[in-house]
Structures are given as structure tokens and as C-alpha cells.
Amino acid sequence: MALGSKELATDQLDGFDKDRLVEELRKAKEELFNLRFQSATGQLESHGRLRSVKRDIARIYTVLRERELGIRPEVLAPVEEATPAKAEKTRKSRKAAAKDDSSVGTEASEEDAK
């Protein structure tokens, strides 16, 4: 079982965009600084929290790096369920786009033929 914050589990980090991950990283580093300061002054009550915050930071860095390398996919926009009306509009727009694409291709081939 992975230790760390329950709100920063890997599957939840997958749903965050890059800006949100950077913000979570900033918060975690700030918390780690405060925990270290409390530890140095003898005010820290939960020493296990230091370890879990460090793991959260490492987890965020890992997700960011994996996205950079293309190992982990970027966040995708939530998919809307298509209603019949939307599906009909989509089909019509696809047909129109295909028609436009085919006419563009023929114009280019006619110009190439000259």
C-alpha cells in the first residue's frame, strides 16, 4: 500500500492538468518546509507526516516527468455523452467537413496538374 495523502493518489493526479500539478507541488513543498521547521523547534507531533509529504512530492514529480517523456498521457477533456440530437448534428458536420476536404484536395491536384 502506498503511503502519502489520500487526496494525492496517482489515479487522482492523472486527472489534474499541468497547472494544477504545479500548484499541488508548491503546496506540498510549503507544507514540507513548515513540517521541517516544526521538527527543528520541537513542535512536530506527527513525524510520519514528513514522510508522506515527501512521497507526495515525489509522486507529483513522477507524473510530470512521465507526461514530459510521453509515458503517461496528458489530461483529456471529459467526454460528453452524445444525445441523439447531438449525434445527428455531428454526422452532418462530419459530412460537411468531408465534402470540404474532398473539394480542397481536388483543387490542389488540379493546380499540380498544370
From TrEMBL:
NCBIfam families to which the protein is assigned, alphabetical: L29
Tree of life domain: Bacteria
Designated name of the protein: Large ribosomal subunit protein uL29
Family in the record: Belongs to the universal ribosomal protein uL29 family.
GO cellular component, one term: cytosolic large ribosomal subunit
One BP term from GO: translation
Source organism: Arthrobacter echini
Disordered as annotated region, ranges: 76-114
Pfam families assigned to the protein according to its UniProt record, in alphabetical order: Ribosomal_L29 (PF00831)
One Gene Ontology molecular-function label: structural constituent of ribosome
PANTHER family assigned: 60S RIBOSOMAL PROTEIN L35/50S RIBOSOMAL PROTEIN L29 (PTHR10916), LARGE RIBOSOMAL SUBUNIT PROTEIN UL29C (PTHR10916:SF0)
Key words of the record: Ribonucleoprotein, Ribosomal protein
InterPro entries in the cross-refs: Ribosomal_protein_uL29 (IPR050063), Ribosomal_uL29 (IPR001854), Ribosomal_uL29_CS (IPR018254), Ribosomal_uL29_sf (IPR036049)
